[in-house]
Amino acid sequence: MEPKVEATQPQFRSGISGANPVEMGLGFDEIHGLISAAPGTGGSSFTALLELPPPQAVELLVKEDFPVKPMPPPIFPSNIALIDRASKFSVFASADNSPESTNILSASSSMKLDLVKQEPLESDSHPNSSSPAVSNQSLKSNKRKEREKKVKESNKKSKKVVANEASEDSGEKLPYVHVRARRGQATDSHSLAERARREKINARMKLLQELVPGCNKISGTAMVLDEIINHVQALQRQVEFLSMRLAAVNPRIDFNLDALLAGEGGSSIDNSYPGTFAPSIWSEGQINGSRQHQYQQPWHFEGLHQPSWGREEDTSNFITPETSLLSYDSPANSASLHSSHLKMEL
Amino acid sequence: MTTTHPKNPTTHPKNPTTNPSSVIRTRFAVRFLHAMKKLNKKTPPSRRYHTIRAAACASMASAVGPRRAWSRAILRKIRARTLHDHLIHKSRNHRLITRRKSAGLRGNPRDQEEVGFRQEDDLRGLVPGGEGMGFCRLLSETAHYIKCLRAQVQVMTNILDHYSSS
């Protein structure tokens, strides 16, 4: 007990001061002072801590304002190791993204509640009475009921966060490794991390399945991966093929963008549009980027005069491809249709 | 002449270009066309296909920006290549560059054992910059890469249509 306590104390200090330097630092000094001041009580310095200023200790602990949740800081003064862990979680919570951290916090607090309840606390009824009281307010409604599940899930998440963020393995520092693993899951920190990673991978695979057409029906990661690989290869081949065609087409056309203007006008709007207006109106609304500001004025002129389409103004014409390409959401078939349609009109 | 048509309801109201895929399409289209214009004047027809393909990849990568690992990888490749071209001792630097690239080894060999390892290698080969990341990261990069490839194909198809039809 004692060596554990003493061993964890410095960690506790560093952990908590990391989380909340201002408040913790103050509280810490006090606690430290108490601890160092009461060597006479022998090994039970931490009971001294707890006994001597119990309200103060509780206050100090309560002061640890974990930024993430309105939950009161997990108060398990009976075990400094637990407090250490709590502070670690709070550090993660502030540093990391919220959903995980909230889970972690809730999990940690609920876990600790478990421990507090299950393990007969060494000496302190006092902090125990305070802790359930405080924690009850916020935790009871949510956590107690789903504690088991949350503990399970958050175990993985917390484990993952710990593995990712804490450079030192928390399992090493804290004597209670079994706190983490729960309820039929493997207790290994490795397997927990793996499980977390697997979940991440599964989530990404789901995303990919939605992205790649025809993957929804396939079950099984391997085949989905095959599909994905085929899809990527097909897309790349398409790009190559298109660039080949463009290379063949290019010398002939010499990149005259007037044609694009014509095509684009039609494609941008509904078919009945004369197309002259479409570009000017459209360019105002839809073109993003600073480039277009330069072009907008010549654009308006271009838009208003039909015969001016013959004019070669590269700057204004430049916008046209964007606008036509923007009309992808509407059936792309209309684009080519309209280009020919407009030409006939002219 | 000035028939003031009301703005098209389908294109106007919500400013459809703000959805992420059309933003990418716009950016890509602009850069690609710029590049094509420049290319058209300079390159002889023999190398045109090659340069156009490179321009497509480069403009896609620059449209995406350095936010994604695969676009960074492409930009790195391009920069390395241009540097390499400018340097006198081409062979020496080329060796250095290729050695550096291969140093970025796979992230987690463990992952290969867990999930479809055969395909993972293939995927790494396909996605630019896929060598140096873990499986999980690889998957998200692949998703984004697929989105961008699709946008690229659409834009290029449209350009082609316009050019060939006019």
From TrEMBL, chain A:
Per the record, the domain of life is: Eukaryota
- Where along the chain is composition biased (Polar residues)? 126-139
Q: Where in the cell is it found?
A: Nucleus
Tell me the keywords, alphabetical order: Nucleus, Transcription, Transcription regulation
The record ties this protein, via PROSITE patterns, to:
BHLH (PS50888)
Outline the extent of the BHLH domain. Answer: 185-235
One Pfam family from the record:
HLH
* GO MF term set: DNA-binding transcription factor activity; protein dimerization activity
What the entry lists under Gene3D superfamilies is as follows: Helix-loop-helix DNA-binding domain
Region: Disordered; residue ranges are 118-169
Protein name, entry field: Transcription factor bHLH48
According to its UniProt entry, this protein's organism is Sesamum indicum
From TrEMBL, chain B:
What InterPro entries does this protein's entry cite?
IBH1-like (IPR044660), IBH1_N (IPR059002)
Q: Where is the composition biased (Low complexity)?
A: 1-20
Give the UniProt keywords, A-Z.
Answer: Transcription, Transcription regulation
Q: Where is this region: Disordered?
A: 1-22
Keyword Transcription regulation assigned: yes
Keyword Transport in record = no
This protein's name:
Transcription factor IBH1-like
One GO BP on record is:
regulation of DNA-templated transcription
